[in-house]
Amino acid sequence: xxxxxxITLGVALGAALVAHPVAAQRPSMPAHEGQxxxxxxxPMPMPHGAMPHGQHMSHGPGASAPGMPxxxxxxxxxxxxxxxxxxxxxxxxKVDLERLRQHxxxxxxxxxxxxxxxxxxxxxxxxxxxxAGRTEEAIRAMVVPHAAELDxxxxxxxxxxxxxxxxxxxxxxxxxxxxxxxxxxxxxxxIGLLTEGAHHGPHHLAMAKGEALPGHSH
Length: 218
Prior knowledge:
By secondary structure, this protein is α+β, with helices and mostly antiparallel strands. The chain has a domain at 92-207. The protein is built from 7 helices and 4 strands; from the N terminus they run ααααββαββαα. The chain has a 4-stranded antiparallel beta sheet with strand order 1-2-4-3, covered by helices on one side. Mean pLDDT is 80; it is low at 5-9, 15-44 and 46-58.
């Protein structure tokens, strides 16, 4: 063997011996069929701010439930049920939540579907409140007793008269010469006047308990 050939073989053998332990320390990971080998030997890192789907959807001990039940009439009934449950004197044999539900339907008809034609008069407003079908029934069921409630308040004089399709509601300020009170009354208009008084909540509770309400057709 020539000296040059011996030197070449020696260099190749030395390189192979050095490369073997290095390769043994870096075992190759099998690639999935049809996919290139992964560049990562461990789990893929999550993007900054990301959360695993299962963790995102779970409700842990610190999570709070939604506060809105999804519908206002449903919320009103749910509140009444909680009050009835909390009252040890509740007579469940008289409870009538269907009566309250019908009243809430009437409120919806009057608030959202009634037609209102207001006309200024000395000291206040005359409002013709009309509708058809269930809306007309709801107007008469709600506006007449509400006028009586307004008339009992120190700020208003109120009266109603039945007209085709609904009710004519007349409300004036007390005293009628109070320009600011008259301006406020006209600014409130029908829907604002409908909110006046603190009787709505107690009336709803009384309806649910099955108690009689003077002046109400429900």
